[in-house]
Design a protein that fits this description.
alpha/beta, Rossmann fold, seven-stranded mixed sheet, two-stranded antiparallel ribbon, about 35% helix, globular
């Protein structure tokens, strides 16, 4: 984040949130966040508009809301975090979301990434292995009017076969290797963005399915929480 953007965010959040209406201050903070995303190289206008429209502060606990538009991860409970805005924007842009796409997300968290995607595609199906987070995210998304998002509590390693195939898949937790069920559920011509690696050494990969085969391209180094459940058991056995 540039010094200019950081100062702007600090001014907005430090001085404006004490005034009514607070939503106006948050809106200004989102606009400043989008300026920062552009400075870091995000160019897809649809993605930038979705990032500006979705109120990130409503997807974090109340005590962290003043920091919601800083480019940082924040705790959301159950020892989980919400990804920094740049990572959300970068992964979304890499997917090249289209209005008629059906997207699978693995790792719902608080529902923020799903909410961003919901503004860009036809349907979002999202799976969260931590049941309390799945329940709260489903409630939050429903109350906020994100009606094209369906949340499931379960192990994302196996994907969501009933709704497959998907035009795009986004994974927000890191397995040691790409789960084959997710590859199988990716439509021909589809895209998958997924962090792969060990706990402290991960790379974000963009996968494309062409002629039944997967093309794999590395993008940036990242740090996500490990994928648990079957992915963790499989890594332990191997």
């Amino acid at each position: 984040m540039t010094q200019k953007t950081a100062v702007l965010l600090t001014t907005i959040l430090g001085l404006s949130l004490s005034r009514v209406p607070a939503e106006g201050a948050y809106r200004e903070a989102r606009q400043a966040m989008v300026v920062h995303l552009k400075e870091r190289g995000i160019t897809n206008e649809r993605v930038l508009k979705a990032m500006e429209d979705v109120p990130r502060h409503k997807f974090v606990p109340a005590g962290h809301q003043p920091f919601a538009y800083n480019d940082d991860s924040l705790p959301i409970g159950e020892r989980q975090t919400i990804s920094p805005p740049y990572i959300v924007a970068f992964m979304t842009e890499q997917l090249q979301p289209l209005p008629d796409d059906r997207v699978l997300e693995i790792g719902t968290g608080s529902g923020y990434q799903a909410a961003v995607l919901s503004r860009l595609v036809k349907e979002v199906h999202t799976i969260e292995i931590v049941e309390p987070l799945a329940v709260s995210a489903a409630k939050r998304l429903r109350e906020m009017g994100y009606d094209n998002v369906q949340v499931k509590a379960g192990d994302g390693y196996q994907g969501w076969k009933e709704h497959a195939p998907f035009d795009a898949i986004i994974v927000t937790c890191a397995p040691s290797e790409v789960p084959q069920p997710l590859v199988d559920q990716l439509k021909e011509g589809g895209r998958m963005i997924i962090p792969v690696g060990e706990r402290y050494i991960q790379t974000l990969y963009l996968l494309k399915k062409l002629d039944g085969k997967i093309e794999k391209h590395s993008t940036i180094p990242v740090y996500f929480v490990p994928m648990t459940g079957q992915a963790e058991e499989k890594a332990t056995v191997e």
